[in-house]
Design a protein that fits this description.
A: alpha/beta, 5-stranded mixed sheet, 20 helices, B: two-stranded antiparallel ribbon
């Protein structure tokens, strides 16, 4: 069971309820009953994310007044069909979202939301809690049912199941829902007490009853600040290694929110960055305890440059971070210092002009966080070249080599390698061919090292197909030489040379994302030719190499 | 490079359709020389010319990241903006999904 598959079920509102009940093994109905039992004497109820309106139609009895909102127009249509005929109260279905609850402040006894939390990103969950707090009466209650990550042993099964459904959604070109990881930490700082809760399926589905408290009578909900995360020491060094090894394949998000470098005060600057673990550690280390507020926006655990180009670091994320964290209350500074590479996603002219909600102006800081201390000291109006140019230097290329090679071995070559091993092990007399697999792996590593080190050699052309050909030739010569030293057979080299060429050609194309040497249009235009050449080289290369394995 | 007849064409997209080989262009009539494009371009392509206005120095090096166009306060920059990143895997994803994105870098 995995709630994430509701993304698919939502496409057909008519069958949504029965399918969703099947998906959760009926637990959704138990959650509904739990919610109904906890409504007690409440008179005014708001349901956020009402889906097909079933729960709202059950809640409306006993003279209650229910407003049920959903952002999905088709769901609201379906809700109208589920509108109960024997109504004892008032019920209103309407389009709306948690961002703008359609009720006045201090007006609701209860706010209900089931299976919506996993549709919201961390900041959105915080905004939802804050908006609910405002809409609730004193001691009003927020009743939530949602999918959570279970703890301990059950986490493994949960993750596996979720992974399976993620693949399924991916094939349908649908997005996965979000993991509700940190929600439990949010409600106390924002101003809720946990009154009651129930777990199903070892905690993979939970229902919570939260009560609004306003201890200091401020009539304002609080803000959540994530616990400080370590950025020095052996543990964080391992986190750096992990990101270097998995950079292209995995997102590594940390909690978005406000972090503190040194002891920031009301006069300290605000540095904005992404919530990729690697980026966070680098920025914090480079700030060297300079007093500053570090605002990590929710870029989905992706680095600044990629997130900016992939709609994960733009105006939307900045506005959301400013609203959810209450950063304007922490400092008198009215300038947000953004990483320069986020400019591919952020648009200053389209941000709201100085307003109550967004009282900031934006400055683009240096490309590299190592220049932040100098930037903060000098606050240059025009940055010197080294602060604003993104050079793909040798040290960057070496790290890119590690990241890219592990990506290739894991995502592209893992299955073929296992396949070859299986074939060779199963046909026992061939056991001495196992070293061919070891050679294959070293070919991949060496050819990628050549590409990374010698990349500037190919700057005479923008075409990655041509670059791939260049590195194909270089790699063929180098690997041919190594093969000669190992085996001393010209025929064996000739039989493998197409495969050498292909590995380097394919790797160069795959390396394009690191290089900042091509544009979306150029690479998309090259893609269809790449596909043809790639297929041709691969087929010939494999056939010749297999002949080589057999006769040698 | 041909001069753009900015009074005869109404929007940046039409003008670019007439000049399909120009990837990015700063309209000299609109440019105020504020220099923000030069501050955001990671390749330092917008460079000031004699009259204090800015010009793209080497069009071929542009990765179409749109940073300058997005942030130009007077909307003086026209460019083709193709969605996506300059990355083979992103291109593959987009061509497979016919332009709609699912997830990049994952």
């Amino acid at each position: 069971m995995a709630v994430t598959y509701m993304r698919k079920l939502e496409e057909e509102p008519e069958t949504y309820d029965s399918n969703f009940t099947t998906l959760t093994n009926g637990i959704n109905l138990e959650v509904h009953n739990w919610v109904l039992n906890h409504l007690k004497e409440s008179k005014t109820i708001l349901e956020v994310g009402c889906g097909t309106g079933i729960l709202a139609s059950k809640m409306v009895n006993n003279g209650r007044s229910v407003v049920a909102i959903d952002k999905n127009f088709q769901m609201i249509n379906q809700s109208m069909l589920n509108f109960p005929s024997d109504i004892d109260g008032t019920l209103l279905y309407q389009i709306g979202t948690f961002k703008d609850l359609p009720v006045p402040p201090n007006s609701q006894d209860v706010i209900v939301s089931t299976f919506m939390l996993s549709e919201l990103r961390p900041f959105e969950q915080q905004i939802f809690l804050r908006n609910s707090w405002t809409a609730l009466k004193q001691e009003g209650r927020l009743i939530i049912g949602a999918e959570f990550v279970p703890s301990g042993f059950w986490k493994i099964g949960f993750k596996l199941n979720r992974w399976r459904y993620k693949k399924k959604l991916h094939r349908l070109s649908l997005k996965n829902t979000y993991l509700v990881k940190w929600f439990i930490n949010y409600f106390a700082p924002i101003g809720f007490n946990l009154v009651d809760s129930k777990k199903w399926n070892h905690g993979s589905i939970q229902a919570l009853e939260l009560m609004k408290v306003d201890e200091d009578n401020s009539n304002e909900p609080g803000y959540y600040e994530p616990p400080q995360k370590k950025y020095r020491g052996i543990g964080s060094q391992f986190r750096i290694f992990r990101c270097t090894l998995t950079g292209q394949a995995d997102r590594v998000p940390i909690e978005p929110g406000i972090y503190r470098s040194g002891n920031p005060t009301k006069n300290s600057p605000i540095i904005v960055t992404s919530n990729y673990d690697f980026t966070y550690i680098k920025v914090m280390r480079n700030l060297r305890h300079i007093d500053a507020w570090v605002l990590c926006v929710d870029s989905n655990g992706i680095n600044v440059w990629c997130a900016a180009r992939g709609n994960d670091f733009g105006n939307e994320q900045i506005l959301e971070a400013v609203e959810a964290t209450g950063i304007k209350n922490f400092t008198d500074q009215k300038t947000l210092i953004l990483p320069q590479l986020s400019a591919g996603g952020v648009s200053i002219p389209q941000l709201p002009k100085k307003s109550e909600k967004f009282p900031f102006k934006i400055k683009f800081g240096p490309v590299w966080s190592k220049h932040l201390p100098q930037y903060l000291e000098e606050k240059p109006n025009k940055k010197p070249d080294y602060m604003k140019l993104a050079k793909f230097s040798l040290s960057h290329r070496m790290r890119a080599w590690v990241t890219h090679t592990t990506f290739l071995l894991r995502k592209i070559f893992l299955l073929p390698i296992i396949g070859f091993l299986a074939i060779f092990v199963l046909s026992l007399p061939w056991i001495n061919k196992l070293n061919w697999v070891a050679e294959l792996i070293s070919w991949i590593i060496i050819s990628n090292a050549l590409i990374a080190i010698l990349f500037p050699l190919s700057s005479f052309t923008r075409s990655f197909i041509k670059k791939g050909m260049v590195f194909g030739f270089i790699t063929s010569i180098v690997l041919g030489g190594i093969s000669w030293l190992l085996h001393g057979s010209l025929i064996f080299i000739l039989l493998n040379v197409i495969l050498f060429f292909w590995i380097a050609f394919f790797s160069t194309m795959s390396f394009s994302g690191y290089t900042m040497a091509t544009s979306p249009r150029e690479i998309q235009e090259e893609y269809s030719s790449f596909k043809k050449i790639n297929k041709f080289l691969l087929i010939i290369g494999i056939i010749l190499s297999i002949i080589g394995i057999i006769i040698y | 490079m041909t001069e753009l007849k900015s009074d005869s064409c109404c929007s940046p997209s039409t003008s670019l359709n007439q000049l399909p080989n120009i990837r990015i262009l700063i309209d000299q009539k609109l440019c105020t020389g504020c220099g923000l494009c030069g501050e955001v371009c990671p390749f330092g392509l917008p460079q000031p010319i004699e009259n204090g206005k800015y010009k793209i120095s080497d069009v071929n090096l542009c990765t179409e990241c749109s940073a300058c166009k997005r942030n130009c306060p007077v909307d003086a920059i026209s460019m083709y903006e193709q969605k996506g990143c300059g990355c083979l895997w992103d291109a593959r994803q987009r061509i497979k999904n016919k332009g709609s994105t699912n997830s990049c870098c994952n």
